[in-house]
Design brief:
With 158 residues, the chain is an alpha/beta fold. Helices cover 39% and strands 23% of the residues.
Length: 158
């Protein structure tokens, strides 16, 4: 089974959604055979990836950074998170009691450690806190993992 993980920005400008979704779909469709998709289901890239992966028939593995992770979502965001979490085949709960930068970094590195390829919905900029997309891309590259960056040229993140 091919294992593909995601790291990416939570805030993606709406004008980039279609291009990024198409990029994710193109990568997933290139793989023949069964797929396992790793995501922490954060708002933005993680949930978009989960949606695309499930539409491609992948099994979803959810990596939950902390015991209070749900507290990090607004009520509206929580609906999407719970929707994808219910559809997961497998769940990995990390031992952090609280959603901290360290917990997010651990979740990102867990995904990088356990995938064959990492997809990064990333503008190429530095992380805005420990465990951000840039940190996880750097970690995966240091491991020698293939990283596919998906972003629309000229798209600016707020």
């Amino acid at each position: 089974m091919k294992r593909i993980g995601i790291t990416g920005h939570r805030v993606i400008p709406p004008e980039g959604h279609a291009d990024i979704r198409a990029g994710l779909l193109a990568v997933l469709r290139r793989h023949e055979g069964p797929l396992e998709a790793f995501s922490s289901l954060a708002v933005g890239a993680d949930q978009m990836f989960a949606d695309v992966a499930l539409s491609c028939g992948a099994e979803l593995t959810v990596v939950i950074p902390s015991g209070d992770y749900e507290d990090d979502f607004t009520p509206g965001e929580l609906v999407g998170y719970r929707h994808y979490r219910r559809r997961a085949t497998r769940e990995v709960q990390l031992s952090f009691p609280h959603a901290t930068d360290e917990a997010y970094y651990a979740a990102g590195t867990y995904i990088a450690d356990n995938c064959d390829r990492l997809l990064a919905v990333w503008d190429g900029g530095p992380s805005r806190g420990l465990g951000g997309t840039g940190d996880i891309v750097e970690y995966a590259r240091e491991l020698g993992k293939p990283v596919t960056v998906i972003w629309r040229e000229g798209l600016r993140r707020p």
